C-alpha cells in the first residue's frame, strides 16, 4: 500500500507509509506511518480476536487451523505479540509519527476469519457494528482490550504511538471511547499520548469542530467516507462505477474536514487508496500545505 506514483502525487504533500502494504518498499520521503489493525489482523492473525473465549464453539477444522497458528501460545498472547512485532519492525527512522488505527472492520470481514461464527449476523455490515460501537459492545469488549494491549506494549518499548479511533459517529462516541481508553490504561494526554479520530461517515466531518475538542487531530478515510456519503457498497460489483472519491459531495466533506483541523490547529491526515486515480483530490491537496497524505495503492 505504501508505494506511490511519485510523479502524480502533489509535491507539497507530507507523504506517509501504510501498514500493511502490498509493496515491499517504503516511500523514501515518508514522514509518518499509519497502521491499520484491521488489515494486519486479516494479513497476519487470520483468526477472530474473540476466539479464545469461544473455543468450544469451533469446528474441528477451525480448531486444527488455530492450533497450527498458535503453537504453545494462547490466542491472546499470539495476537498481541504478533501485531507488536509487525508494527515495531516496520517503523523507520524517518517516521516522525506512528499512528495505529483501532479496528474498523465490519462483521462481513470478521466472518471470513477462523472462528468467524462468533460474529453476529448483520443485514448491512458496512453501516453496522464497527469502530466505537464495536468497542462499546459487550460481545467484543475483549477485542478492544487486546488492541489496547498492543498499543501499550509499543509505548512501553519507548515508541510514541498515537491512537486513531475509527467510526466516531457522534459526540457521545467521542466521550465514550476516550473514557474506555483511559480504563484500559491509555488516558489521552498521559505521557504525551495523542488520540485522533477517523472521518469515516459524514457526521464525523459535520461535527468536526466539536469532535476535535475531544481529539488531537483527524484522519479522513476517503474510502469509507465515499461509500457512506454516496450510499455505495464498494463490494457490490453492480455499483462499482458509482464509487467515486472525486465526487463533488465527497470533495466538499474533505475540504470541510481539512478546514476544521486547520482552525483547531490540529493535524489532518488524508488517507486515499489509489490517489493517483483521482485528479480532483490531487488538485485539492496540491493547494494545501499542512495536510499529511497516505496515498495507498
TrEMBL record:
UniProt KW keywords: ATP-binding, Metal-binding, Nucleotide-binding
Entry annotated with the keyword ATP-binding: yes
Matching Gene3D superfamilies: Phosphoenolpyruvate-binding domains
Pfam family, one: PEP-utilizers_C
Ranges of residues in domain PEP-utilising enzyme C-terminal: 100-289
Bilayer-spanning residue ranges: none
Keyword Ribosomal protein: no
Domain of life, per lineage: Bacteria
Similarity annotation: Belongs to the PEP-utilizing enzyme family.
Record-given protein name: Phosphoenolpyruvate synthase
Organism: Vibrio algivorus
Amino acid at each position: 500500500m505504501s508505494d506511490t506514483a511519485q510523479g502524480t502525487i502533489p509535491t507539497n504533500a507530507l507523504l506517509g507509509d501504510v501498514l500493511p502494504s502490498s509493496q515491499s518498499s517504503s516511500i523514501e520521503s515518508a514522514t509518518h506511518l499509519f497502521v491499520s489493525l484491521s488489515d494486519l489482523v486479516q494479513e497476519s492473525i487470520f483468526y477472530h480476536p474473540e476466539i479464545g473465549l469461544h473455543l468450544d464453539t469451533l469446528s474441528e477444522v477451525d480448531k486444527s487451523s488455530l492450533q497450527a497458528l498458535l503453537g504453545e501460545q494462547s490466542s491472546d498472547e499470539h495476537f498481541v505479540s504478533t501485531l507488536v512485532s509487525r508494527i515495531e519492525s516496520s517503523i523507520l527512522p524517518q517516521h516522525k509519527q506512528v499512528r495505529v488505527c483501532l479496528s474498523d472492520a465490519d462483521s462481513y470481514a470478521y466472518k471470513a476469519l477462523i472462528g468467524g461464527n462468533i460474529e453476529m449476523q448483520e443485514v448491512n455490515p458496512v453501516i453496522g457494528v464497527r469502530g466505537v460501537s464495536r468497542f462499546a459492545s459487550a460481545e467484543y469488549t475483549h477485542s478492544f482490550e487486546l488492541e489496547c494491549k498492543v498499543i501499550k506494549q509499543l509505548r512501553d518499548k519507548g515508541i510514541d504511538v498515537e491512537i486513531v479511533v475509527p467510526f466516531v459517529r457522534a459526540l457521545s462516541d467521542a466521550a465514550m471511547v476516550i473514557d474506555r481508553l483511559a480504563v484500559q490504561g491509555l488516558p489521552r494526554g498521559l505521557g504525551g499520548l495523542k488520540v485522533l479520530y477517523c472521518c469515516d461517515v459524514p457526521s464525523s466531518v459535520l461535527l468536526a469542530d466539536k469532535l476535535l475538542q475531544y481529539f488531537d487531530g483527524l484522519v479522513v478515510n476517503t474510502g469509507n467516507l465515499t461509500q457512506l456519503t454516496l450510499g455505495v457498497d464498494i463490494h457490490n460489483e453492480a455499483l462499482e462505477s458509482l464509487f467515486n472519491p472525486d465526487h463533488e459531495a465527497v470533495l466538499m466533506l474533505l475540504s470541510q474536514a481539512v478546514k476544521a483541523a486547520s482552525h483547531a490547529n490540529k493535524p489532518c491526515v488524508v488517507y486515499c487508496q489509489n490517489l493517483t486515480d483521482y485528479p480532483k483530490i490531487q488538485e485539492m491537496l496540491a493547494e494545501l500545505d499542512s495536510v499529511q497524505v497516505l496515498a495507498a495503492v
